[in-house]
Amino acid sequence: KKETEEILQCLRSKSSEDIVKSRKGEIFARCMPNTDGTFLKDSPKSLLNKGEFTKVDYLLGVTSAEFGHILPSLLSDEFGKGKFPSEVKSVLIGYANMLYKDTKRIKEIHEALTDEYLSGLSGDKHEAERVFTDLQADTFVIAPTIDMADRHAAAGANVYQ
Description:
By secondary structure, the chain is an all-alpha fold. Helices cover about 55% and strands about 0% of the residues.
């Protein structure tokens, strides 16, 4: 309880500008925890990579159109007006470059993702926007859920789907 009070006191002593500045330049910084070396010993990604997390049974499930139109609408003021396939491809390639930047096979990844998401599109802007919605859900909801399930299973926890 004392530690919680100290953390709250510290947070309350900071201005909102200081908190925002401390996370500047990080993608989705508002959602990311702060690694302080005491409560959180390392970044969540590093802790996961090292297997240093509480192993608990993991139940996962996803739906079609996960997050529906909420997630894309948070990322674009233009959501609902349709997208050109070239816009969706640009986002797709950008995500691939960000997520797989250290791989030597990036061109193969671009081709596979383009084929998976964009082959067969008619050119209709609303059809392309539905693909954009699927891409957002796959990137920000489904892939991290599967990754977490894989990590729990590898650590010996039960995983249920």
